[in-house]
Design goal:
By secondary structure, this protein is mainly α. It has helices spanning 15-35, 40-45, 52-84, 86-104, 110-122, 126-137, 143-169, 174-195, 207-212, 221-239, 245-252, 259-288, 290-308, 314-341, 348-376, 381-402. Helix 7 (143-169) packs across helix 14 (314-341), helix 10 (221-239) packs antiparallel against helix 14 and helix 11 packs across helix 12 (259-288). This is MFS transporter.
């Protein structure tokens, strides 16, 4: 351990152990979040007698309302986290999510389910506070690598979750699976409570400078907003394919073979690439500078999206979606590293929460954009539009951020 990695005796924590504990916690959270999504429309169908259009509407609403509420509420929880501590907010989020998901198994109608999905969004913030905790409790020279590791935890959980949820749904009822999901998050609550360490929030005379920091007095606001927008647009293009992935796969394979199985592989490729490469690029960013990774990610994403619009084989589609995941793994940890390095100590959680809000907006915009483009043009046009969005995003980053700020 280098001199810069050491803390003073009254602040010493085992930050390396923290990373792996939080990794496991966000992995379990990723599983819990994603395992209920594959059967959500089927569960809604058991709560009433719906036409096809009604079922589609309520399924979309159940997906969107969670992210919309998250976008509004996240900054509030971020402010509390900066004053009370990130570990406490992780515990609050885990317990709140455990309760809301457990209660979904008792929903009697679709409106109760929608209300509980909104409650889930209101009580969230686990992952953003996990990132903020790691960012503030890790030596600065290790932040990029550490955040890259945390990204793999949540992404890996999101990959495993649908497989676990689909397998369990064939064995137990939908209601029971919601209860299991709630129990998983309850375990996460105790896991964080007993195993995660956090230096105490400053008190007394040290507290005033921290509390006085506000958005109005925040330096580098243009930089931070640009990073928020970058996160939102990355999430938008990533989610744009979701409504049509199986339909596009069916077109590519000419309705031959197991379309559902192949679509699952295609959908998993970006996440798999992120799990593999995020720690590597996080470590590289700590050495050469995070801004170079973000710029490389923009270029790689453009060169991945454009050929996808003309792909004619499923192997080519799988490889290009894997390349999109590699571009994500260059950008997402790097953005969070820049947020950490350019946020005042008393606003780290708020900044990460704002970033989560923009990411949630992208999660809603993406499927809407993809569905609209598919209806107006065709499936392949989605990838050309995505390439255009990424290119514009890259130019804005270069001229508004990279050329104006001395980033490291």
């Amino acid at each position: 351990m280098t001199e810069s990695d050491r803390e003073t005796p009254d602040q010493a924590i085992n930050w390396q152990r923290n990373i792996w504990i939080v990794w496991l916690a966000v992995f379990m959270t990723g599983v819990a979040f994603s395992e209920v999504l594959p059967f959500m429309p089927l569960y809604i169908d058991t709560l009433g007698h719906f036409s096809k259009s009604e079922l589609t509407f309520y399924s979309g609403a159940a997906f969107a309302i969670n992210f919309l509420v998250t976008a509004v509420v996240s900054p509030i929880w971020g402010r509390v986290a900066d004053k009370k501590g990130r570990k406490l907010m992780m515990m609050r989020a885990a317990l709140g999510l455990a309760i809301s998901l457990f209660l979904m198994g008792f929903a009697q109608n679709v409106f109760e389910l929608l209300a509980l999905r909104a409650l889930q969004g209101a009580l969230g913030g686990f992952v953003s506070n996990a990132n903020a905790l790691i960012a503030t409790q890790t030596p600065k020279k290790k932040v990029g690598r550490s955040l890259g590791i945390i990204v793999t935890g949540f992404t890996g959980g999101q990959l495993i979750g649908p497989l676990f949820g689909g397998a369990m749904a064939s064995v137990v009822s939908y209601q029971t699976l919601f209860h299991i999901t709630g129990l998983i998050l309850l375990i996460v609550f105790f896991f964080i409570w007993f195993l995660v360490e956090e230096r105490p929030v400053a008190t007394g005379q040290e507290e005033n400078p921290v509390i006085k920091v506000s958005w109005n007095t925040l330096p580098k606001k243009t930089l931070l907003v640009s990073l928020f927008l970058t996160t939102m647009l990355i999430q938008t293009v990533n989610m744009s394919i979701n409504p049509i992935v199986s339909l596009f796969v069916r077109e590519v394979v000419h309705n031959q073979g197991s379309v559902t199985f192949i679509a699952g592989i295609v959908a998993a490729m970006p996440g798999l690439a992120t799990v593999i490469f995020a720690p590597v690029f996080g470590r590289l960013g700590d050495k050469i500078g995070t801004k170079y990774l973000i710029q490389a990610g923009f270029v790689m994403a453009v060169f991945a999206f454009i050929p996808t619009a003309f792909v004619t084989s499923v192997i080519g589609l799988i490889l290009l979606r894997f390349a999109v995941g590699i571009s994500d793994s260059t950008m997402l940890p790097a953005i969070q590293t820049l947020l950490t390095k350019n946020s005042p100590a008393g606003m780290v959680s708020r900044i990460f929460s704002y970033n989560q809000s923009f990411q949630a907006v992208g999660s809603v915009m993406g499927p809407m954009l993809g569905a609209a483009i598919a209806n107006i043009f065709d499936y392949r046009a989605i990838f050309m539009v995505s390439a255009g969005i990424v290119a514009i995003n890259g130019l804005l980053f270069f001229f508004n951020v990279n050329r104006k700020y001395d980033l490291n």
